[in-house]
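agent: user wants the structure for LysR family transcriptional regulator from Pseudomonas tructae. delegating to structure tool.
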Amino acid sequence: MSDLDDLAAFAVLMDAGSFTQAAQQLGWSKGQLSKRISALEASHSVILLHRTTRRLSLTAAGAMLLPQAQALVRQMEGARQTLAMLKDELAGPVRITVPVSLGETFFEGLLLEFSSRYPDLQVELELNNGYRDLLGDGFDLAIRTEVEDDARLVARPLLAMQELTCASPQYLQCHGEPRVPAELGSHRCLLNSHYSGREEWLYHQQHELLRVQVAGSFASNHYSLLKKAALLGAGIARLPSYMLHAELADGRLQWLLRDYQTRSVPLFLVHPYQGGMPQRVQVLADYLLSWFRRGSQALQTL
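agent: tool returned. relaying tokens verbatim.
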């Protein structure tokens, strides 16, 4: 790469006509520029310039090399312009990796709302509960519940996700509605097998921690299946707030024990550290931030 840099410096020098002006354009000192030209000559065993106090003149070898060096500078400038254009262009692929249940929740908005607004963007949505190396695996964005200590990444808070206790009207009509957490012990609860303590549900009221032993005939490590089971009237579930906006609004599920707080998990939008995020990635990041904000506002009105 040093040869390419030195060739470009050679072209800039001859276009500027003096070491002083060329060094200013390159942001180097005159001494640095002179050493680079000398290194270029030494590495190829040629003399490119006749140096005098008044002017620079090319040797025969320098005259042969100059057009190619100038072409190299033009190509480098063209590449910079292309990169700048790509950065600002609302077209091309955007790759994002998110937890499974979360991606299943907002993918409809990506397909309908976001894609109609930005038809030239190709969104690749990977659903994965495991860790993915954004830089190594080529992802532009990720949504995560934890932020690792990695200077290569930037994390922006999305929301504090809370699990809501809910059930269908049909279930409540048959089995009654629990008014305090302790009453959950006599209900059919839908258990999350992802958690080792799935049969103990925790609630907070003011400064008091309540531990409730629950039981049920169905468990799954997949939030979407637990949600479907609740909609079918199979029992009471605890589900993330982000996946309940529509069901609570239209009454298909009812929010129970609202006066008791459940665990809160932060969600972060993560992207590789860059001097400036490409516009095609920025618009998707803005959409996701807006989607979560609208969801939180909708819950506050219920």
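agent: one observation worth passing along. The chain is about 45% helix and 25% strand.
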